[in-house]
Amino acid sequence: MNELIPKIGLEIHLELSTKTKLFCSCKNDPYETEPNKNICEVCTGQPGVLPVLNKQAVVFAYSLAKALKMKINNPSYFARKHYFYPDLPKNYQISQYERPLGENGVFEIFREKIKKEIRIRRIHLEEDTGRNVHFGNYSLVDFNRSGVPLIEIVTEPDLRNSDEVEAFAEELVLLIRFLKISEADAEKGQIRFEANISLAPGEELGTKVEIKNINSIRALVEAVDYEIVRQKDAIKRGEKIVRETRGYDEFKKITFSQRWKEEAEDYRYFPEPDLPPLVITKEIEESVLTIETPSEYKKRLIEEYSLSLKEAEILNRYRFLGHFFEEAFSELIGLIKKREKTRDLLVNYLLNDLWGLIQKLNIEFTEKLISPHEIAHLLYLLETNKISSRLVKEAMEIALTQNVKIEDFIKDKEMISDAEILNEIVNKVLEKYPQSIEDYLNGEEKALEFIIGQIMRETKGQANPQVVREIIKDKLRETKND
User: Fold this and answer.
1) pTM for this structure?
2) How far, in Å, CA of 330 to CA of 291, rounded?
3) Residue 242 and residue 231: Cα distance in Å, rounded?
4) What domains lie within the chain, and their CATH numbers?
């Protein structure tokens, strides 16, 4: 048997962070604990009411479509998707079908081991349903979530394994958060995944199985891995894969059959008669937030700053840190005029020391604590031997924990590099510790470090250790020659 190659496509439902619902003025708060608090005649499907489209939801959807480099259908159209379920009061969902907002896009994954483009078939706007709450032999319906604005994102079956699925989902979530259209928090149900999986030799498509309502990227990866193995084993046994919808049990780590897969005709789509065509106006275009995608941003950081992919990954994942890095770089290079040195200083003290401190202290980092200007000035003083590396780290920690401005903390703490001043202090210390001089002359290197330590204590840490070391060595060399 030829090798069976998995072909995986994803369908992703994303809750948008608008203030109101998609077709009415009710508060968009699907996590309201009081049942049926944020509802009205429109989102509960009462007779004679008309939907009014939320403009901000359109801006958000258009922003994502542009970021995914999609063909924008202008106009696009809404349709009624019919099915019957207790939490769908109209017995249909307002969605988009034949002419969605965006089609034929692409999203690139750029990571250390995965570099490929995933085609995006379509994205469209639709309303969410309500929520069934089950109590023993009866159920209640909470309509707070009914009418919440969603974007559905559908990929082509270009993913080949769970590693690619995980990378795609994580990078897409980052893009969504950078666009500020949703928090995309899977634990809160703000983003939900469905995976379409088929196995066949070469580039053929096999019989597609859909895994519905997966609530985290971790569960998505587990479900994909399980389903690939299940289908492979079934095919090897000579069994026929059936087109069906399956669920995923996060406790048993298995997929399970739910129902035969519906076809588009089962939903009896037809144009929504109560909504006009959706036209993208110039005003909407001008409202769109344009940003670099994760792959574009990482590539630019590597090209402009000669960063490693690992370093670019950190700055991309925490984009505020990336902006901080670029601002600090722009200022610092203007001070020291050395591109490679500027990069090395920032990578070392920003990505390692400062970011390490932030994670250790578990605090929210803002520029009110430390600004790019302060970091640039601090590292300039270090590069020009005016302060020590120890003082840099101490200043950053004080700024983070005690809300003290860096410039106030380092005031009067610049290193003493004047040879004449240090010469007097060195003489004083050498007179005090003659045994250490003798130990060093007898080959004990630790004696030199002891002497330097005493000088640092004498100057309260402000002596330039490099200058001090040279002065001591010169004096001990003279003593030895005498």
Assistant:
1) 0.86
2) 20
3) 10
4) 4-287 (no CATH), 294-410 (no CATH), 419-481 (1.10.10.410)
